[in-house]
Amino acid sequence: MTKVITYGTFDLFHEGHYRLLKRAKELGDYLIVGVTTEEYDQTRGKMNVVDSLMTRIENVKKSGFADEVIIESSPGQKPLDIQKYQIDIFTVGSDWVGQFDYLSDYCQVVYLERTKNISSTMLRAQKKQIQRIGIIGTGRIAGRFVPEAKLVSGVSVEAVYNPHRESTVRFAEKWEIEAHSELEYFYQSVNAVYIASPHGTHYAYIKSALEHGKHVLCEKPMVLRQAQAEELFSLAKERGLILFEGIKTAYCPGFAKLLGIACSGMIGNVRSVEACFTKLESPKSRELTDLEYGGSFTELGSYVMLPIIKLFGNGFDDICFDTIEDAETGLDLFTKAHFRYENGIGTATCGLGVKSEGTLVISGTKGYIVVEAPWWKTAYFEVHHENPSDVEKYSERFLGDGLRYEISDFLSMINGSNKSEFKLTRGESVTMASVLEQFLRRKRERVRS
Ligand code: CTP
Questions:
Q1: Which of 40, 351, 372, 437 is the most exposed place for a label (fewest CB within 10 A)?
Q2: 344-351 and 332-341: which strand pairing?
Q3: Pocket test for ligand 1, best of 53, 56, 65, 119 (most atoms within 8 A of CB)
Q4: Which whole number is the average pLDDT over 241-249?
Q5: pLDDT digit string, tens, across residues 212-236
Q6: Quick check: CB of 28 below 6 Å from ligand 1?
Q7: Which atom of ligand 1 is nearest to the CA of 19?
Q8: What is the DSSP string of 22-84?
């Protein structure tokens, strides 16, 4: 008996898939089809698969060609499957020519001609309206957004706005998008905006974008006042628009896994969360010269507050700040924010002028979790217990600059395929804005006295 194996996502099952499976079956007597999990697809940069794994498996079965369906969940699985199922022929479409030649050490490799003019990507694009995104701001983060957005199907970055014509044109030429220095024209080209301008400008841009009927993804910190956050979320709700705060950590798969484990009881009840993020900046940088909104807590506070608020909630009893300031500017070079909850303590440490180890430690009544630096790009963590040799290790991919995850979630919310913003709720964004407001108020009082 000749056994054949093939793999694929088989999203929105189409004629190309049908013809591939038919010919794969004809190569032998018994066909095994490996269908990829969503998590695996995400790690290889395939975001926004529409059909669930179960639907995709059902569709492969309905074709009538598969004698057996298996799940492909990790890279490196194929050679193991080939040996385990004693496969004679591995086959895949011609879009992969050459890429699986290494499997010829185990079995025959056959590339089948791909069916022309059809693909899941094409169908996804037809099924959903492509979201045309415009960027406000032309700085470093804006430059990271464009290549990341290219990896998410269903979005297209169309335009950039910055009141300074020269940098707008430079940015637009680099990324081959439209340049605008008039907001009204910019809004006509897009149906969603990504805001990556200086912190102090976010509120006005978000408001104007929502008033023009645009969905908004805004870089952290979204706003620096609680009332502003509340007002903007109500405005978005009233207009049926999505407003998302972009803290990349909140949306990355490793952080979601970490929260799941921290809440699972593995370390008992969580009692302490200590998060640290420092980044040495030049004294001439915007972060250390913007007298109103500069400093380490406004720059990095959103990251270090995130795990504390996610694990302990919005209702802390008390908060106090310890800061080391620059004598001339009054801006904080290093800050520790202590959150006191009924049953726990959170410490959020950040610095632009002091360097420290960027770890996250979550301590509980039965053990603790250490997330190694840079924990805000959550990729690896360990669970420890009283017995030092009792350690569980977890890893998850964090790809590229990690913005693809929040873009993908933003898109799912716009399309309605994801109804809840549980990864970073409105309430959590409002709490962060209120903490930043308290911090800035105390800073102003210190400067005055
Ligand atoms: N395939 C094919 N002809 C097509 C599309 C896909 O022969 N027009 C083959 C692929 O080469 C692969 C299998 O079908 O062997 C499963 O491919 P998959 O990646 O699931 O489908 P695509 O339509 O290529 O998906 P996407 O657009 O998301 O890459």
A1: 372
A2: antiparallel
A3: 119
A4: 97
A5: 999 999 999 999 999 999 999 999 9
A6: no
A7: 7
A8: HHHHHTSSEEEEEEE-HHHHHHTT-----S-HHHHHHHHHHTS--SEEEEE-STTHHHHHHHH
